[in-house]
Structure formats: C-alpha cells, structure tokens
Design brief:
206 residues; alpha/beta; Glutaredoxin; 14% strand
C-alpha cells in the first residue's frame, strides 16, 4: 500500500507530524484495509455522512468498543476550500485518521485514479492498492461496521497473531516485555537489598 504514497506526505490528524518516509508509511499502512475518504466539511451530504463514518471507524478501532483495533486505516482527501476549513473538520474526527496535506496536488491525482466525481466517497483498498469497493458510502450507511468483515476477507489480511516480522517482534519486546523486565529488575534489587540488610543484622546480633 505504501507504494501508492511513495514520495508523498501524509499528515497525522490534529498534529504537525508528517508520515513521509517509506518506512513510516509502510508501518502505518501495511497489512491493513485502507479507506480513502473524499469529502468536504462544507458539503451538506458530507456533513450528514461524516458522523456515521466517524462512528463506524471508532467502533472498529477504539479500545472503548473493541479489545483490539481492526486492521483499518483511513486517509482523508479533502475538497475543503481553505486549510482552516480542513483543520476545523479534522478536529471533529478521530485522531487516528491521516490526511493528504491541504493544497497537495496528489489529491487531484487520487480523484482521477479512483474516478471520484462526487463527495462523499469512500474508496476501499486492499494492502496492495487494488480496489475492493469503488464507493462504500451506501454500504457503510446500510450495514455499518459489519461490512468490514467482508473487506477483511477480500483483502486477505494476515492475522496479526501470526505476524513474525522482525520489526513486529522487536516492537513487541520493546513495548511490552522491557517494562516488565525493568520492573522485575527493580523488585529483584529491592529483595536483594532487604536480604542483605537482614543478613548483616543477623551477623551483628550473633
């Protein structure tokens, strides 16, 4: 999927961070269903649909609703007239959304590539960039989060439980095991200090 964005820049929502290197994009997009959301905060139809899409996305990715986030990523491709309008719209949307920067000509390229003529439009893509659904707006309205299962099967995603990539293993060890190791190390040190103190006290009393 990162091939679609090679040499491009994506913005992290509500932050100034840019996700621009191939490695970063690979991590953000790899092994996920990608939604390209073409919309505008000023379009009446978009204003009706965007809260539905927000709820749809949160129910699949937010810890409040699910134990583990679904393998789903969304990139907002705006038709807003100003950068302020784009920013104002994104502030009302989930933090995990990514966005094509305002004024980037790549937006037009994406519209032409996926034949987007009207908004709102949600293009659903496999990790390799192949189209699963040309415009999923009506499907999301009608079926809700349940339609993700069909997309997941069509995308042939690898279950993350079986991912054995070195980077993933390293990340897991760093993020999960290391704090436990550090905590254990601190506890061992405390126990050792206590035992040493008791031993010294025993020798003195003897």
């Amino acid at each position: 999927m990162a091939a679609l964005f090679t040499g491009k820049v994506l913005m992290a929502n509500r932050e100034r961070d840019e996700v621009e290197t191939e490695r970063e994009l690979g991590r953000a997009l790899e092994n996920k269903v990608l939604l390209l959301y073409f919309a505008s905060g000023q379009c009446p139809r978009c204003r009706q649909f965007s809260p539905l899409l927000k709820d749809f996305f949160l129910r699949l990715t937010d810890e409040f609703y699910v134990e583990r986030a679904s393998q789903l990523v969304l990139v907002y491709v705006s038709r807003d007239e100003t950068e302020e309008q784009q920013s104002a719209f994104l502030r009302t949307m989930p933090k995990r959304w990514l966005a094509v920067p305002f004024g980037d000509a790549f937006k037009r390229e994406l519209e032409l590539r996926f034949a987007v003529s009207e908004v709102p439009a949600v293009v659903v893509l496999k990790p390799n960039g192949e189209v699963i659904v040309g415009n999923a707006v009506e499907e999301i309205r009608r079926v809700g989060p349940a339609c993700f299962r069909n997309w997941q099967e069509a995308a042939e995603l690898v279950d993350r439980n079986f991912l054995l990539a070195e980077d993933f293993d390293d990340w897991t060890r760093r993020s999960i095991t290391d704090p436990i190791r550090r905590l254990k190390y601190k506890l061992d040190k405390k126990t050792e200090a206590k035992n040493k103190g008791r031993k010294e006290e025993g020798e003195e009393s003897a």
